[in-house]
Amino acid sequence: MIIRTCIQHSMYTVLVALAVIVASTATTISQTVRFPAPSSAAMVKQTVGVTDITITYSRPGVKGREIWGKLVPYNELWRTGANAATTIEVSDDVMIEGQKLAAGKYSVFTIPAQSGEWTLVINKNPNLAGTAGYKQEEDVFRVKVKAQMQPVSQEWLAFSFEDLTDSSATILLAWERMRLPIKLTVNTAELTLNKARAAIANGQGAYIGFANYALQTNSNFEEALKMVDASIAVQETYRNHVVKARLLEKMGKKADAVKVLEKGIALGKAMKTAPFDLADSEKLLATWKGSK
Questions:
Q1: Residues near 71 by Cβ (< 8 Å), separated by ≥ 6?
Q2: What is the pLDDT of residues 208-225, one digit of tens each?
Q3: Which of 69, 89, 173, 199 is the S-S candidate for 206 at Cβ 3.0 to 4.6 Å?
């Protein structure tokens, strides 16, 4: 009888242990399986010149609902998406609607208006759960932006980049029939040259890159010429002579440019594999000589 009781107790203990294991396993599985979110996560990234802009947000759908003034109230702070607050991250200093935004990551809010201009809010805290924990004293800036209405309704909220140049873009927020165009600008020319200067100061080269960009932007010729001369002092090559010749020609020193280009072409012809643009350099030399 005692033996039977012990066996029954042991079996009960085993069954309890198995139940705990099954329950634990079920909990673990439920924690690792992903289920569709009502508002899916999204991220859009764009490079403007040499600056990366990343917007991370969630995309609510219209789903037959009345959005403006109902689901999203007018004149109240809105997370500008769903779930956690929308964030923007910029790798360099930029200007947004004329307001400076230093490199870093921020939360993005808006205050919708029934008519007229919305308020765009950029806040220092990028880790907010929607508007919970938001503090106005942590705003970087607030700026007015004119909302537009579009004829066709867009089901899912989306951020995109439009009107792209190497120094500007329009960040476009669109949902339902509303479009909010936000102007972003970057001083790409100054930023690029400053990055090149820093690389050169740290011994990372970039002499020819600096000079080529100076040619591209028609700026800083004197400084670029010093950069090329520094490259030539290290080693004379076809490439640094061609770049120097082009700089000299831009600076109105064509006779000097011809001499430097002649030497560059000679260096190019002496290479085991001829430069891909050697023929173009020879045509350029002929043009310069013909226009003396």
A1: 65
A2: 999 999 999 999 999 999
A3: 199
